[in-house]
Amino acid sequence: MSENVLLAGNAWTAENSDFEQYLQIDLGTIKNITKIETFGRAHSFEFIREYSILYAVNELDYSYYKENDGIKSSTTAKASTSLAWQPSVSNYYQSLYINLRKVKKITKIGTMGYDGSFVTEYNVQHSDDGENWMSAFAGGGFANTDGASSYTDPVSGELFKGNSDGNSIHSNTFQTPIIAQYIRINPTRWRDRISMRVELYGCDYVSETLSFNGTSIVYRNLTQYPIRSRRDVINFRFRTALPDGVLIYSKGTQSDYFALQLVDNRLILNINLGSNVMTSVIAGSLLDDNLWHDVTINRFLDQVSFTVDRVEVKETIKGDFQQMDLDKILYIGAVPNPDEGLIIAKNFTGCIENFYLNETNVIFNLKSPPYDEEWNTFYKNYTMFNCPETNVVPVTFLPGTSQRTYVKLKGYEGVQRLNITFEFRTYQDYGVIVYHKFTSVGFFKIYLEKSKLLVEMATDTTPRLILDNFPIPFNDGLWHRVVFTISQNLITFSVDEREVKTTRLVKVFTGGLYYFGGLPPSVVFETSSSTTSSSNVNTGYVGCLRQISIDGNFHNPNDWKDNYCCKDTLRFDSCQMLDRCNPNPCEHGSKCKQTSTEFECDCRDTGYTGATCHMPLHPLSCQAYRNNHGTSQKSEVIVDVDGSGPLKPFPVTCQYYHDGNTQTIIHHMNEDPTPVDGYDAPGSFVQIITYDGDFPQIEAVINRSVECRQFIKYECKNSRLFNTPVANPDIWTPNTWWVSRQNQQMDYWGDSLPGSMKCDCGILGTCKMQDKWCNCDSGLDSWLADEGFLTDMTYLPVRALRIGDTGTVTDDKEGRYTLGPLVCSGDNLYENVVTFRLPDAALTFPTPNDLSHSWDIYFEFKTTTFNAVILHSKGPTDYIKVEIISGNLIKFQLESGSGPMGVNVQTSARLNDNEWHSVHVEKNRKQARLVVDGSQSSTVQQPAGQVRTIELNSELYVGSGVDFRDGYVGCLRALMVNGIMLDMKVAAEAQTYGIGMGCFGKCDSGPCLNNGTCDEGYDHYTCDCRFTAFKGPICADEIGINLQSNSLVKYEFRGSYKSTIAEKIRVGFTTTEPRGFLLGIFSNKTGEYLTLMVSNSGHLRLVFDFGFERQELIFPDQNFATGQYHDVQISRMDSGTKLIMKVDNFEPKIFTFDVKASADAQFNNIQYLYIGKNETMKEGFVGCISRVEFDDIYPLKYYFQENRPKNIYSYPETLVEDFCSVEPVTHPTEIPEVRPAPKLDEEKIRRIYRNTQSAVLGAVLAILFLLIVIMAILIGRYLSQHKGEYLTQEDEGAIGCEDPNDAVVRGHTGHHVEKRREYPL
């Protein structure tokens, strides 16, 4: 194109501005184009900033132009340069592509920010061709084989830690180097905006390749030079398009073998070190994708690390041996015959690259055999030193596309026979794979429904037919080969060489088109009217297809051109399926199922629940079971001692006692008394003790218990136990001993001491023979026994018993042992309790470093607060927070790079009821979950997109927010993170401000007096005085009334009258009159009454008649009319037959009455209560009365209420409240706690003072400031000074005199005037 054309006034302007617009140029003939220039519309601001180029030699086959073999190299991203990659938009969809020009070996990546912006997290992908990408790992991605929570996301790969500032380089090392030409870096977190400078460290990759065709083999003869190793390292790369094949095999004459084989596109390592027990380790998946895969096997003793594509699986090899002995033949790529450890016997077809056996480069040795190392010589048959490209071209039908995807292929039209073959691989349950419409009436369709492969067919002569001949699922991610044939009256359907034939009257004429992977809209409309068993049968196919053949004609996907719909819905030359179940995201041995977009976990029979089977179903301990169920009965319980941790649940017996003690009993299979006879050599009888739990589980119970014990007993007849006494402790030869859990031979028996070599009787000196240390060392011809409890928790439980000196079966020597179950008491988890007394107090713990994709936090709380933060931790943007809101709602909030998430559980009952409640929060790859009190739960789904680990850099604050605000007051216990207890007691010892050990509130000291109810607040308390005769902050203020002789207070019992068989009466008074009516209770209906008064002699006199006999009781030991205050308490009990009168601190008077069975001791139909006098009396009590109480009635308190009840009144009508000269009781003032000064970062202070430039600058500024101040003072003094003269008439002698009189006496010159001058100082 000439410059004149470029600068012409016209321009191409599309009608619509969108991504579907193209400018198509026909150059007439094929030309070599080296450069392109563009120009916007003249005299406007319309121009193109970015575009793509497609080219073709015809109008059909267009290809995208790609610079530098497909990916543009970024040379400005080098970490040491002053430039950086900064995309115009900072979001999760930005990627930096790097083309290394050729395959390189990359061992490390370094990143750096720019101008204050930096990337804090990113993932790395690599590719050999720029099209098919694999995620990179640093080597820390572990497959989930033992219930642990560590897991590497198969979607995003490992998320690498980036920079913490914009000026320093942060490096990540790849444990297994990346071998690739193309690198793609995707930032997932950043500060301010995406800014990256990148440096890749590595070297040129030297490839030694060997190809295998199914008959090829490489071998080494080990008969003369065997492998006897305690450590082995094997490294290699391989690629294949087949799912099965033997890669490595060898065995030895001592039953050792080593077998690495590809089975169903996964690598399986079977290994045996001579114990006749095989250990299998599985790693990798979808390995038959014809891409290069890295394999590393590292064995040391009985520990093996198996890494495939940088995802590591660790396993302990079973058996007692740790050395591998291989002395036959080592095979690579094939085996001549099936053998031990092999699952398949199919030879490997594909390529192997850079195969290293320990330090030996096997392929290099094959090229250049070492002449002086016969022991290290390898041989080969039918192999080639290259890796030819395969002619198998797969195509991927991608998920999540809004358009219908299908491929339209041609076949013979109008014939009466058809044959199609293809191979498919998928994880989907539904999807149409093939559809064909006949020229005659009808069609056939091969599709997936509920993971089964079905054929639906209809013709004009045959009604709708569904072939359902294969009940197994086909969505297993494996390749399956399908052959489908229709001929006259015969249908043949074959899957994986399993053939089913159907004979019917069938005659069809084929159409010209076959649709693979889905149906176009027109065909969907036509078939939607047909009756189908499911609404999903017309769903498009998601997965991979290959080897498609129609009527014998192979259809290469590279030749499909425009015979498919739609753009970007297919991927050619690769099967880009993702195995979301490798590594297994499901925990605790649960099974993983998946589709093309998601995975699901089957938690059945695991003892766990949740989206990833992370949360335990069983209680943490017997104490937890008791707390949840409130039982006090002996129970058989399954416990999960570490919650979500790796230990499995196991059964125990829980024994509960009324004193609150709880015992955990772990049984074993040998608890009954067991005779031993015929084992004479020391320790020759071996009894391995098999418990209901394994030793890690039992050890966890012991570590959490307060104490543990195990009963042990040995009964003997002519059999010696320890062979005591022992003259030399270094030479101790017992016949019988027990073995600790650490496999130690123990030197003491029950109720004895470790290291004593004695039984209990030897410690106490009570053995049958005084010179022996055990009863069973007596050797007597009678039955004796040594027994007791083993209590040292360091050695429990007993792992084994070793018994000897029991002679032969024909002599008189005999023994019998009894070993009881392990019994542990208490649970330190629930003893780990702290109280938060102040809302700005908090415990801090180091940020848990295992909060990855799946984690949980458990705790129990007891509080009365309505709103508070219980847990909080945060990072630059991420955070976790658990809080209580409004007293009945628990809220769990978090942010882990995918947006804020929150889940609430609101309960119908109060959670701030000062009772214990449990909270369990969980975050996994699929959801966040909150469980309150073990039953009420709520979940929120993880937002779509990449799943990231949570990034926290603050400590975990327990009891408040990270700023010590909105704090919690109350008790906390049993705090666990991922099944590991956080010791709050230890933390409380170091952080004492506002926190105490144990659960103690303000009310525990009984601050509310006179039976006032204390309402706990933990940082405060309030006293409820409603049910007392007192008032005030602590229910100690008197409510009294000062009465004259004509005064009274009357209370009426209205409604249903009150009747009592037991009463509590209280009244306080002070008087100087020797007589007076204090209190009276009457019933006009029954004539029954009770009166309390001061008699004429000053004694207390109680008179009552309740229908069985009039009683008059005198309290004579004190004169109560002396003006002192007295407190009288009267209570009747035992069905009215017993009365106790207590006055002040005097000894209570107890009166009993002989009430006949026919008599009625009940005080019936009470109507009135009088204070001071009643209406029939002329003169009443003179003095002050308070504390009036009759059961739950407090008349004086009601009388002085703001809204006085109508059933209480007085004469005169208004009386004045009085405290009866009793001063209220007060508590000492609490000394407020003072928050300690914050801890200073001394290193940071040192760094500040080490900055000499700042110090010099500060010194110079200080000197300048000082000079300025001095100059200002001098200038001010100069301007303000006053120079001048003044006159004085003082006498010369008068100078210096103290007063005028003295001046007159001393004057000698007389008065005169003198001029004097004043000078400034």
TrEMBL record:
Residues 1-33, 34-203 form the F5/8 type C domain. It is a single-pass type I membrane protein. This is Neurexin-4. Residues 209-387, 396-575, 832-999, 1040-1220 form the Laminin G domain. It is found in: Membrane. Signal peptide: none annotated. The chain crosses the membrane at residues 1255-1275. Residues 577-614, 1000-1036 form the EGF-like domain. It holds the Pfam family EGF. Belongs to the neurexin family.
